[in-house]
Amino acid sequence: MANLTYLKNVVTLELFSDKCIGCGMCVTVCPHSVFVINDRKARILNHNACMECGACAQNCPSDAISVRSGLCGCASIFIRERKHGRIMRYFFKAWGYPV
What we know:
two-stranded antiparallel ribbon; elongated; Alpha-Beta Plaits; 4 helices; alpha+beta
């Protein structure tokens, strides 16, 4: 999916290049083409396209990827914050506006 972006700069995805063995499993399982293999190592191509599904981390044989599934995902934010009536306040804070 080209140019897919979620909330900018809030994704918990981390790639530890020193642990990467270049197997390409992250490229295979990622539904939004977040990763590429370059020089026999995985690289993050589009960090903000990550939807934090966790498929990459769960399938990485060398534990080179960390992502906290659902932590910043839109659905979990709306469910959690709606219960407390703080949806807009959360997003204003996330976007850098003073609340």
